[in-house]
Design brief:
single chain; 0% strand; Ferritin; 179 residues
Length: 179
Amino acid sequence: MNKTADMAIISNEFITKKLTIMKKMNAIGLDLEKSKEMAEKLNDLLANFSVYYMNVRGFHWNIKGEKFFMLHEKFEEIYDDLAEKIDEIAERVLTLSFTPAHAYSTYIEQSQIKEVKNVSCGREAVESLLEGFQTLIMKERAILEMAGDMSDEGTNALMSDYIREQEKTVWMLSSFLQK
């Protein structure tokens, strides 16, 4: 054989190896199996955010009492932020090459945060908000750790931002409740 034929064989072997590796990667260069696991965790987070979002909408609509104006506005601020994060989480699942959960029956079944109905007492609503944020932060920390392990900087940055914001909110809600 000549040098050109040897180079062609080596080049074909390299391309075959590269294609095999690429089949195990998603469009953004992350391991497909690990990305699937991440998408499952993100879908779980999406379910929790979605149920939590509806709880906060209910608090906003049904709040009564002397702190009505303050809490009504705060709940609206929180559910607007939750709606944005729900969209970001779903888009991250898509970026990882998977499908975001999108049925409330799935959310209700999967969510650790449970539906809260007919709450009009400010203190009870804020206590529920606090518990919900604590649950979300716990789940986000687990996702953050997994994202670091798989070099998923996009998910890592998203979770880091969420945790930072929500930790401050937990502090503020705890202060409101004098805890």
